[in-house]
Structures are given as structure tokens and as C-alpha cells.
Specification:
By secondary structure, the protein is α/β, with parallel strands linked by helices. Helices cover 30% and strands 26% of the residues. The strands form 2 sheets. The protein has a 6-stranded mixed sheet with strand order 5-6-7-3-8-9, sandwiched between helices. A 3-stranded antiparallel sheet has the order 2-1-4, covered by helices on one side. Helix 4 crosses helix 5. The N and C termini lie far apart (38 Å). It binds adenosine-5'-triphosphate.
Length: 233
């Protein structure tokens, strides 16, 4: 079983020209829990996650996985799995084919392709072309990519987007299971109500700044943050 790792953000700041997307952001994300990363649209969630994953360079500060910057991880795909946005897929290729190509390119072999398709509930659709997939099925396929390396850390940016109520329920149970296995699960959302039943701990970001960190039980007045995070799309 892969070990979860502590994620640590230390004074992370990111400026895009005159825009400060993330400002002095420091937080710790523990293994064995689902941590919700909440904030309204444009609060800086995606930028913070992309910095953690080495896709965006911070203007200052550091983000680490088990004390190591993502770029310096020995086996990144086996350490951190990420679902960042509705991934682009080749419509004419099957789900299984996508995963095999990705596994080969990532040097992790195709041995787990059938297993991860099963984990995300796509076994029956393995041989179907992705062009015919619903958004929810694409989200599951994106999650399958993230799981291929059997990582101890899962980072998911708004994974419930496009899922129907049944899919949302499934995702909730799935993330809880990953945390129960000891993995670190960080999941972003702009709605407290969407993650309230899923998470053990919360980070709330607003205007690029951390405005709350703690357990759900520490949220004295959830409605205070509900108004912060329930911004319309
Ligand atoms: P959403 O839920 O809409 O994805 P978010 O909380 O993920 O929002 P970010 O996407 O991180 O927020 O954006 C934070 C701020 O940084 C926004 O003002 C955004 O316009 C700006 N920003 C993000 N990426 C860039 C970029 N590449 N160039 C310029 N500005 C950017």
C-alpha cells in the first residue's frame, strides 16, 4: 500500500504581471484525510495546485510533497496523482488505449490499466471510444490516469464537475476510501456544500490568501464560509 505524504505550502506567492493570484499561502495537508480546498472562482486554488505539481513556478515560497519539491521527486507518477481539469482525450481511441499509452509514456507499464478502470467503474466501457463518453465518464477516466501509478497522494481540482448526483455520491465514497487507506487526498471546490460530507479538514482561500484552516468541527459558523465559497459560476 503506498504511503500518504504530508503536503506543505510555505509562504507561497504567485504574481502574473500585476495580478497576485496567491499571496503568502502557508498550509499543511495531512495523510489519511480528505482535505477540502475551498474558495470562490478566481481565489487562487488552481494556481496553488499547479505550483504544488511543478506546473507553475511560484514567485516566492515553496510547496513540497513529503518534504521534496515535485520536480525533485524520484518517482512522481507513483507519488502524486492529479486530476486538474476535464482532460482532453482523443475521441477515436478507447479508454483502455488512452491509459496504456499514458502508462507507457510515464514509464509505469500497463499492468494496472484493467485494475484502475475497475476502480473508477469503467470496466464495461474499457473498449469504447472516448468520443462517446459523458462528461462524468471523462472525469472518471481522468481519475483513472491519476491512479495508474498507485500514488499515495491524490490532488483533484473540482472533480465533481459534470458528475450527476449518483456520480457525486460515488466520488465521495471513493475519496473517503483512498483516505482510509492512508493516502493524502486534496480536493478543490468552490462550494462548501459540495464537499461538506466528504472532507475531514478544510483550507479556505480567498483573494489568494488562506482565510481558514482546520477540521470541519472547527468551522464555528459554516454559513460564514458558505457565503465566501458559494460564488456563482
Ligand atoms: P476557478 O475556480 O475559477 O478555477 P481558482 O480559485 O482556481 O478559480 P485561479 O485559476 O488560480 O483561481 O486564478 C487566480 C487568479 O489568477 C485569477 O485572478 C486569475 O485570473 C489569475 N490567473 C490564473 N492564471 C493566470 C495566468 N496564467 N495569467 C494571468 N492571470 C492568471
Amino acid at each position: 500500500m503506498p504511503e500518504g505524504q504530508v503536503l506543505e505550502f510555505s509562504e507561497v506567492t504567485k504574481r502574473f504581471g500585476g495580478i497576485t493570484a496567491v499571496s503568502g499561502f502557508s498550509a499543511r495537508v495531512e495523510p489519511g484525510q480528505v482535505t477540502g480546498f475551498l474558495g470562490p472562482n478566481g481565489a487562487g486554488k488552481t494556481t496553488t495546485l499547479r505550483i504544488l505539481l511543478g506546473l507553475v513556478r511560484a514567485t516566492s515560497g515553496t510547496a513540497t510533497v513529503g518534504g521534496v519539491a515535485y520536480a525533485k521527486l524520484a518517482n512522481p507518477l507513483q507519488t502524486v496523482g492529479a486530476v486538474l481539469e476535464a482532460s482532453s482525450f482523443h475521441p477515436g481511441r478507447t479508454a483502455a488505449n488512452h491509459l496504456r499509452v499514458y502508462a507507457r509514456a510515464g514509464g509505469i507499464g500497463g499492468a494496472r490499466v484493467d485494475e484502475v478502470l475497475g476502480q473508477v467503474g469503467l470496466s464495461d466501457a474499457a473498449g469504447r471510444k472516448v468520443g462517446g463518453f459523458s462528461l462524468g465518464m471523462r472525469q472518471r477516466l481522468g481519475l483513472a490516469y491519476a491512479l495508474l501509478g498507485d500514488p499515495g497522494v491524490l490532488v483533484l481540482d473540482e472533480p465533481s464537475n459534470g458528475l450527476d448526483p449518483e456520480g457525486i455520491k460515488w466520488m465521495r465514497g471513493f475519496l473517503r476510501q483512498l483516505a482510509r487507506e492512508g493516502r493524502t487526498v486534496l480536493v478543490s471546490s468552490h462550494m462548501l456544500t459540495e464537499v461538506q460530507q466528504t472532507v475531514d479538514a478544510l483550507l479556505v482561500i480567498s483573494g489568494g490568501r488562506l482565510v481558514f484552516q482546520g477540521g470541519l468541527e472547527d468551522l464555528v459558523d459554516p454559513s460564514e464560509y458558505a457565503t465566501v465559497v458559494d460564488a456563482p459560476d
